[in-house]
Amino acid sequence: MDTELKNAVKATDTKAQYDESAKRLLGQKSILAHILVKTVDEFKKMNPKKVVSYIEGQPYISTVPVEPGLTNTSNEKDGQRIVGFNSENG
Hints:
40% of the residues lie in helices and 9% in strands. It is mostly helical. It has a domain of 60 residues.
């Protein structure tokens, strides 16, 4: 078990706040992979280690606003504007 995962589990067991601990645990791709294998039909019967490779990028924990209209902001990358697809339910 890697150090980050150990620290996340350890923080959950001690006096850390529940919400923050849950976010740290769910931010671990290995934890997410186990959840996907148990809950999403497309991933059922897959090895969780294989599923980890299908989880793109790094999770954003407590950094993206959740207010309507603020989650899909535009960014500049290599001089090109990137605009997120708005999939929010108004």
